[in-house]
Amino acid sequence: QVQLVESGGGLVQAGGSLRLSCAASGSIFSINYMGWYRQAPGKQRELVAAITSGGSTNYADSVKGRFTISRDNAKNTVYLQMNSLKPEDTDVYYCNAHVEVATRRHYMYWGQGTQVTVSS
Q: Quick one: pLDDT at residue 74?
């Protein structure tokens, strides 16, 4: 079993910054893909940013130039540095990981979500 534990959400004023962290633990052999998604009530969950084990990244157009995703492979942890936050960034943010477990099977996992609220 694998767990993803997120931290770092909270309330910030527009223009401010937050850093989200997501640590994966459990029976992990490797993690190829880690990403951050967000979801507002009544809306579909959408990709914010993703990163592969090799460091390739992908960002939603709405966050390019403001958010930076990074990861520490040794710690199985992914980070999302969010700068120049806007009220429209307010959402619940979810960590996602594509994990190869010790039995060499592949599974996708989600974190529990962390609330980010940006006040105007």
A: 94
